[in-house]
Amino acid sequence: MKTQNPGRGAPGLRQCRPLHKNGITTRTERRPVKFMLYKEYTFGDTDVYYAQAEGFGAGLMLFPAGTKIDPDALCPDCMVQVALRGAHNLIDYTQGVTMRNMSSSLLHIVSQEADGSGVVTRLSDGAGNDYEHTLRHDAETGVFTVRAEYFNNSGKTQVLESLQSFSISGIFNPEREGVGTEGLRLTRMTSAWSRECRLTSEEFSALGLDMSWARYGVKCERFGQVGSMPNRGYFPFAMISGGGCSWAVMAEAPYSWQIEVYKERETCALSGGLADFEFGHWCKEIPAGGGFKTHRAYIRVKGTENPDEICNDFVRFQDKRLSVPESEESMPVLFNEYCTTWGTPSEENILAILESLKGLPIGIFVIDAGWYLPENCGWCNAIGDWNESKKLFPRGIESVVSAVNAAGMRAGVWFEFENVGRDSKKFYDESAVLKRNGVPLTSKNRRFLDLRREDVQAYLKEKMLGYLAAKGFAYIKIDYNDTFGLGGDGAESFGESGRQITEISLDFLSRLKKAVPGIVIENCSSGGSRIEPLRMSMVSMCSFSDAHECKEIPLVAANVSRVVPARQNQVWATIRRDDTVDRIVWSMTAAMFGRVCLSGDVHLIDGAQKAKIREGIDFYNAVKDVVRSGYIAESFCNVRYFRDPKGCQIYKKVSENGRRMLVLAHFFERPHERFGCDVSGYKLAAAYTTLDYEVKNGSLSFRPAGEYQAGAFLFEKEETQ
Asked: With contact defined as beta carbons under 8 Å apart, do 256 and 485 qualify?
């Protein structure tokens, strides 16, 4: 690692200057902390402070621009949180609570370089353990990208037991008299199959983050997820808010991850990244001259406590960096036949479905699970051999692909390439599957391919990459229906083996794009169990919930829209032959939170039902600009229980230029009085609904006639004289 002299500021930045040359002593009941402010910057609406703290390393603090701070009361701790094997706790009573602020985090700043887009800081412990901390700012969204990298210049092998992607400290409630955390709240997103990305909020006092009278130890809320389904518990998001300000993070987390809210003194810290040795059984040997780089995390600090405003910025940032095939720019409607054939697709039933879809503007047709079925097997347990069924497709699946193309659609197919099922021959190939303690790791009817093996990679290249190219598929739905948990053998730790396998699975996405140029990739995993930012940056879209006809779908679709760009947020509208017009509108309106995907009994519905579907698609095509690039202007939901929803949900999205507004309303029951939302300054342009509604005096109001009614409304800005 080369070191350079510290920078002297840059155009567009506040002049960088060392402050408090003699250091400052904070007044705490427990211990004084001497530190100096090393540099101070302003990026957009955020003030950034770097501090060198005696006994606590070099810290990073961010505040909404103009926030009044008392330098004497700030409590920074190290912006690079690292645990090297052999390091010790700096604070008593912390074993099993956190691996933050180990002695290996006592780093000093060697140099710093800054320009208009960010800061690169080089740090060292003086014993050859060197680090580079990168902070980049996106001026359009206000989002910071942060990551850390370790360089082993110690001359001997070192073992990392933790290296976090980010750590910011000095967080306090600016409305409180003095510096403290009273009144701060932690907002998270619980996430599970059919309940993805649900916001929850708790006060610090409820989390037990207040210090005791004796002030021994630390207070730490550590949460995350262990395993290869990173969204099965929480989504990697956290927001600390209070006093009109918020500190929020969204982290790349393809495998086991953690986020920690930490409090030892008057302010608190927020950090996270790869799950450490205590949480995720991760450690990694770094030979002399080697290194290790974390995944990225994304930070937004803003003068608001509204999570929608924060999430709008994160989603805009994600959308900007997406690279999807040109065919995806128009966001075509999809049809997936799973809820039509239920895992037994065939040439016969697909041709019948194609005939029934005539007259509907659909761009993609997906053949889901089951195309590989051997005799007397279900689709779930037969994965792994990937031999096309001659019984289901007597003329070969390419004949169906040709029929799909002739109908004006592109053909897609389902794969679950990382797992093998009990009814496959590959399940019993013990040389190919992941082992733990020498025994094949088995989850009921699943085993997991050890993707690190070259023979396994060659097998998948033939069975998946070669098959897609040969058969003419333009779309692949990649599913993943179980987790290997901590990981297995073959590395320094279970956690490191899991990380290695996950990285190779991500690399396969890149290999897939090269093998089949222009292919559209869907990310599915028992619903949305893998919709974290890194994997989502490599695919065209995701699907979630697998809830099919469940009436809570609009609730989940709205939640997912907070963290996934709309053009990636695939929402299913599953139509049944006995669906009323109300029910069809309900499903189609829910799908307008993102990408419309149809399924169900399209071959059994009547002309009136089909006409209502066509009306919904036409409305959707007319509002795609708002769906894709609009921001959440207002959200209301008074539903408490997902499985038995009562109440309503109303969302407003406004286009980037503010001229168009989309209102999506779902009523789970008939309210006692009219519900409404403010639409002042706009006039109604179009509606797709069965609701009794009225636009009057700048308000859109509803009075549903019964349960489960919905509507989508397009408004346009009124011209002012």
From this structure: no
SS (H, E, C) 531-560: CCHHHHCCCCEEECCCCCCCCCHHHHHHHH
Confidence of residue 29 (pLDDT cuts 50, 70, 90): very low
What is d(CA 22, CA 293) in angstroms, rounded to the nearest whole number? Answer: 34
For residues 640 and 191, what is the distance between their CA atoms, to the nearest angstrom? 16
In 10 A of CB 675, how many CB atoms? Answer: 20
**Using CA atoms, how far apart are residues 506 and 502, in angstroms rounded to an integer?**
6
Contact by Cβ (8 Å): 54, 34 = yes
Report d(CA 169, CA 301) in Å as an integer: 12
Of 675, 685, 618, nearest to 655 (Cα)?
Answer: 685
User: Running DSSP on this structure, what letter comes out for residue 513?
Assistant: H
Sign of dihedral through CA atoms 452, 456, 459, 460? Answer: negative
CA angle (230, 233, 238) in 5-degree steps: 85
What is the SS3 assignment for 363-417? Answer: CEEEECCCCCCCCCCCCCCCCCCCCCCCCCCCCCHHHHHHHHHHCCCEEEEEECC
What values do phi and psi take at 190, rounded to 5?
Answer: -70, 145
The mean pLDDT of 534-539, rounded to a whole number, is 98
Say whether 220 sits in a helix, a strand or coil. Answer: strand
289, amino acid identity:
G
pLDDT at 21 over 70: no
Sheet holding 257-263, edge to edge: 166-171, 268-274, 257-263, 219-225
**Domains, the chain:** 24-320 (2.70.98.60), 329-543 (3.20.20.70), 633-717 (2.60.40.1180)
**108: which strand partners?**
124
User: What letter represents residue 633's amino acid?
Assistant: A
**pTM exceeds 0.90, yes or no:** yes
102 in helix, strand or coil?
A: strand
Helix, strand counts (H, E) of the chain: 13, 42
Q: Which residues pair with 59 in a beta bridge?
A: 51, 78
Nearest of 393, 348, 354 to residue 372 by alpha carbon: 393
329 Cβ neighbours under 8 A, 6+ residues apart: none
CA distance 333 to 409: 10
Is the Cβ–Cβ distance between 591 and 573 less than 8 Å? yes
Pairing of strands 158-163, 82-84: antiparallel
DSSP state of 528: B
Contacts of 415 (CB under 8 A, 6+ apart): 386, 464, 476, 477, 478, 479
Q: Give, rounded to a whole angstrom, the gap between the first and last alpha carbons of the chain.
A: 62
| Distance between CA atoms of residues 106 and 278, nearest Å | 20
Q: How far apart, in whole angstroms, are the C-alpha atoms of residue 18 and residue 21?
A: 7
For residue 449, what is the DSSP state? B
For residue 17, is pLDDT > 60?
A: no
Predicted confidence at residue 212, as pLDDT, reads 77
Per-residue tokens: 199 = 């916001």
Q: What is the pLDDT of residues 156-182, one digit of tens each?
A: 999 999 999 999 999 999 998 878 899
Q: Which residue's entry shows tokens 């002299």?
A: 5
For 37, half-sphere exposure in the C-beta direction (CA atoms, 13 angstrom radius) is 20
Task: Choose among 453, 478, 527: nearest CA to 193.
Answer: 527
| Mean pLDDT across 496-502 | 98
> What strands lie across the sheet with 660-667, from one edge to the other?
631-637, 648-654, 660-667, 709-717, 682-689
SS3 category, 308: helix
Residues ≥6 apart with Cβ < 8 Å to 665: 589, 648, 649, 650, 651, 675, 677, 689, 691, 702, 710, 711, 712, 713
430 closest CA partner among 447, 454, 455: 447
Identify whether the C-beta of residue 200 lies closer than 8 Å to the C-beta of residue 287: no
| The two structure tokens encoding residue 237 | 């998001």
